[in-house]
Amino acid sequence: MKNKKTKILYGNNKGSALMVAIIIIAILMIFIFSLVLVSYTLYSSQNKKIPARRCAEAANTLSQALDTELTDSEACQNSDLWRYLRFHIFRDDWTFYDPAIDGHNKDNAFKYYEMKVNTNYIKQFNDSLKAEDPSADSKANLDGYPGKVELCIYWMLSEDIYENMSKDDIAALTPKTLTDEQKKDSRLFIEITCETAGQSYTVVNEYSLTMREYLTSDTTDKNEQNKLFKSAKSYSKNPLYNTDSSGAFYPVTEDDQKMKWIWKFESRS
Length: 269
What we know:
Blueprint: H1 2-12, H2 16-71, H3 75-78, H4 80-88, H5 106-109, E1 111-115, H6 119-132, E2 148-156, H7 159-164, H8 167-171, H9 180-183, E3 187-196, E4 199-213, H10 219-232, E5 242-243, E6 249-250, H11 254-258, E7 259-268
Antiparallel strand pairs: 1-2, 2-3, 3-4, 4-7, 5-6
């Protein structure tokens, strides 16, 4: 009888080793999957660092290039961006930015521009190298160029205006009604955003505007003024160019022709 009970007890233990083995295997599988998940996370983060760094370098490099475009002493003669701003800011189709005033929010004040590579220039540059030396390698290429480069440009009134005028008076202002004194120290903002492989980086440049009359006795001022308003009459350089019946061109008025613009770099963030 005793042997029979012992046999029954042993029989009840059948399969217990299999259950222990299954539990151990499950624990090991969970541990393995955890290691795979950690490895993938590390691998993914490392892959993101490269495009993120590329975006940051591209945005900061472009930020410095724009500084030269706007603040160089010969920007009026050499910079299409400088001339574009000169002919477009303070026009009724581009209002100042103030999120607290209806009609001056992002939808009204922000202008977006997507920068694209000038492949024709690169081809011409490489062709000129080949012409000089057929064995020369191409020096210009698109290596490292971000997938997308976007500029957001907007301008704001000077801080002095907000200190000296009421909110209602400011709300009544339009670009066209601003006096030269009110235009002075206006602030320009350029947001540079570079995107690559799902990563993006943004740099914001801020500039302030100094205005004074051109000095007719100054040769440099006189030459700059002549070149500037020669460009104003060119549709390719001034998209808003038009003429009235008298042959006078606008939107650049006679008062505009007297004023010299100087952009001063204020900050980068």
